[in-house]
Amino acid sequence: MIKKIAIIGSGFSGLSAAAYSSKNGHEVHVFEKNSSLGGRARQFKTDNGYVFDMGPSWYWMPDIIEDFFKDFNKKTSDYYELIPLNPQFEMVFSDGNMALPQDYSEMRNLFESVEKGAAKKLDEFMHDAQYKYEVGMKDFVTKPCHSWFEFVSPKIAKSALKLDLLSNFHRFVRKYFSDPKLIMLMEFPVIFLGAAPKDIPALYSLMNYGGYKLGTWYPNGGFYKVIEAMSEIAKEQGVQFHLNSNVDEIKIIKGKANSIVVNGTEIEFDTIIASSDYHHTENLIQKEYKNYSEEYWEKKTFAPSCLIYYLGFKEKIPNLKHHTLFFENDLDLHTSEIYEHKKWPTKPLFYACCPSKTDENVAPENCENIFLLMPVATGIEDNEETREKYFLEMIQRLEKHTKSSDLLSKIEYKKSYCINDFKKDYNAYEGNAYGLANTLNQTAVLKPSLRNKKVKNLFYTGQLTVPGPGVPPSIISGKIAANEATK
Ligand SMILES: Cc1cc2nc3c(=O)[nH]c(=O)nc-3n(C[C@H](O)[C@H](O)[C@H](O)COP(=O)(O)OP(=O)(O)OC[C@H]3O[C@@H](n4cnc5c(N)ncnc54)[C@H](O)[C@@H]3O)c2cc1C
């Protein structure tokens, strides 16, 4: 039977769910509240010639993204050019900098120069991480996670111990390296998973493999190229997109989702897949059909929100790489202020992305496009004065690192984005940027369920359900939801 399917939201998970549902032979409509596609990965252009990706900037796990295109007999290269970044990124410490080369033998040399024996340790670390990546990203994350029985297979049982689900990442990294800079370098990727390294299972060293070993890439034209490519594929499959279309309600009659109300108009559907933030979606349905209570959400560990500045500089800034991590301060202090104390950081770490170092199309000639991103706790007070205080600190540290002076006078475009914007633009619970943290008790079956337990034709997808936050997992999430909804 051909089903009429509504997808709420057009981020990576919504686009993926739409493309696969349509490929599976159904009539698919995507309803997006904003005026452009892409959700957290939207892009905007300024009148004075800057092009800003609003969200993702680290293109990691290229093979997982490629898999989406393969499923539609396409290649990423049909849509965009991937440029390898060398160095992959630079880290700024209080007593020096470290740039991670793209080439693995150079990476080994760098490790050895910092700590005797670390090159061999890196080989061992990556060997283990590759195994986790292959089992984790190919077998583990593709499960709908309705029950632990899905994980009962000889292959997974055999690999369970080697996956290091029960040891934590903080301890794990220290088994290999003792130099504080190498430790920070290896711990940094798990920040994407939204929790402190001590709360993340060591399984996630797979991120180091999917990032450092498979390399850091840049889609020429910006990350939005991926959104454009995926929406083109969805359109080729017959998906119909409806922008500026806010879903106000999901109507459920006798345990069946019957229709959605879009900008006040009711439209009937056979099946609904919501990629809007999970907590918000639950507020679109009657209380008795919700999967989870308010108390459930209050107890969850959310990945951080972030303070972002999109900046256009009317001059080139020297000594700056495409990706720079400002880690002059203590990672543990910053993460404890995000997750335990829930307050603005006293000594923040932040990240600067300068795509105009690689791509001449994202800024006018001889100008620089930079976005600064500082992770912050969800749900804390967000106001202009606080944003500005951190902005000035980040600019000062940028000046020091790049040996530049008076950067403020060179800014010709400036826009900030933080907790209140995440709430307003994406209906994000407590203004979260990255969804739910991948802690052990929020992994697999313990994540919010992909299906509504009382309403058979209502499904959830995206970074708040399985497998978790990030571009590759969100794409996989859409595929799982589509397959569940159309089987
Ligand atoms: C600043 C930032 C940087 C990031 N950097 C990286 C990175 O470098 N690499 C990486 O892999 N990941 C990164 N991520 C994470 C990644 O971007 C997300 O995990 C992913 O984009 C989430 O996709 P999604 O489809 O789950 O959600 P979203 O993109 O939020 O999509 C949900 C959509 O639903 C829409 N919606 C909500 N409510 C309604 C409604 N009632 N009616 C209609 N539509 C509605 C929203 O407008 C939105 O478009 C970053 C995220 C952020 C915020």
Automatic annotation (TrEMBL):
GO molecular function list? oxidoreductase activity
Is-annotated flag, keyword Oxidoreductase? yes
Keywords attached to this entry? Carotenoid biosynthesis, Oxidoreductase
What pathway or pathways are given for this protein in its record?
Carotenoid biosynthesis
Biological processes per GO annotation: carotenoid biosynthetic process
Database matches in InterPro entries? Amino_oxidase, Carotenoid/retinoid_OxRdtase, FAD/NAD-bd_sf
Q: Which residues form the Amine oxidase domain?
A: 12-484
Q: Name one Pfam family in it.
A: Amino_oxidase
**Which top-level group of life is the source organism from?**
Bacteria
Q: Which family does it belong to?
A: Belongs to the carotenoid/retinoid oxidoreductase family.
Name of the protein in question:
Phytoene dehydrogenase
